[in-house]
Automatic annotation (TrEMBL):
Residues 1-22 form the signal peptide. Keywords: Signal. The keyword Signal applies. This is Lipoprotein. It comes from Neorhizobium turbinariae.
Amino acid sequence: MSRRAAASAIILAIALSSCTTAKGVASNPIETRWVGRSAGEFFAKYSPPLSDYDDGSNTVYNWRGGYKRIKQQNGRSSSVSCSAKITVSSSYVIRDITIVSDRPGANGPSYCTELLTAS
């Protein structure tokens, strides 16, 4: 392998390694809005969790809310809600939100995104 090819391969490897998502960095609009904020604020706004469990270092809440009947883009009406697992630190700060169940929203493919990112 020539020096130029080797140098290109090293530069490419470095560039690709910097593209990985670090744990705790928001990777979607819901996480951008809620990660780092109080779980109390979330539950006060959207309803309390259904259940919780300790995963060893955090508390994980099973949450479902946002029950609503919406008119979708195709003109049909449907009942929607959102389900998520919300990982919370010992200081009650949201560390991660994983959507478990979602439906198409009124304005796009995700009702959960519409609900949980609205102002």
